[in-house]
Amino acid sequence: MEQEEEKTEFARYFLQIAYDGTNYHGWQRQPNAHSVQEELEKALCKILRLPKVVTLGCGRTDTGVHASDFYLHFVPEIHELNEGETLFRLQQVLPKDIAAYKLFKVNNRAHARFDANERSYEYRIAKKKDPFQRNYTYFYGKDLNVEAMNNAAQLMLGSHDFACFCKSGGGQMTTICDVREARWEEKEGLLIFHITADRFLRNMVRAVVGTLLQVGKGEMNLEEFQEVLNSKSRNEAGESVRPNGLFLTRVIYPESTFRTN
């Protein structure tokens, strides 16, 4: 009897990156559109001398959205990578608007998207027009009632159905999210919205910010904001703000994700 060929299981790696989303149609690869994922996979193929490398990100970002903390995993058909050398070479071939920070081996069940148990975003509004920040802030020069916006933001804390802030056709299995932080901060000429949750719906943060701006302008009161939350209807919420002020700033994983056995 012929001996069965031994199956080889290749190692799985996590990669931490950051990117300026200005010139990309988001993270996810898509037909006829320039994506961060496409550039990343192309760079990995080049330095690893492989015909194909498939990556899977911790989520998807919209066109023009940025990330200062983003994770992906991949399984190269190579027995082991020299992590330091691979990271160094990757930095040399990636475009200037994408940076790779950490590369590390994980167990073969670790998943960049499904293992993440907390994500944080910031939305940055410039109170003064700045041509050098046009790709990274949304300019709004009029006065806003920040206290009212913060009071409305507190109504979102906890586990709720956020269907009212979900873009139609998002394909989510559920629209329930656990929001753990939602607050506005004034800092160095910027008005920054911080939001943290276990998960986010498609277009959710931009829709939340657009609706909170209505509160800040005096076009919506707290009771009406609560009615929007209760409605579960996207038509009741405000318009989504522009993507250029949005940053994915933190992704948290349980320690078990990074165990190698």
- CATH H-tier superfamily of the largest domain: Pseudouridine synthase I, catalytic domain, C-terminal subdomain
Q: Report the helical percentage.
A: 10-25%
CATH hierarchy: architecture of the largest domain: 2-Layer Sandwich
The structural class is alpha+beta
Low-confidence stretches: 1-8
CATH class category of the largest domain:
Alpha Beta
**Count of structural domains:** 2
The helix count comes to 5
Whole-angstrom Rg: 21 Å
Helix and strand sequence: EHEEHEEEHEEEHHE
Please tell me the overall pLDDT.
93
The main β sheet shows up as: 10 strands, mixed
The end-to-end distance, rounded to whole angstroms, is 33 Å
Number of strands: 10
Topology:
Blueprint: E1 12-19, H1 36-48, E2 55-57, E3 66-74, H2 83-93, E4 98-106, E5 118-126, E6 138-139, H3 146-154, E7 158-161, E8 176-187, E9 190-197, H4 204-216, H5 222-231, E10 246-252
Parallel strand pairs: 3-10, 5-6
Antiparallel strand pairs: 1-3, 1-4, 2-3, 5-9, 5-10, 7-8, 8-9
Helix pairs in contact: 1-2, 3-4
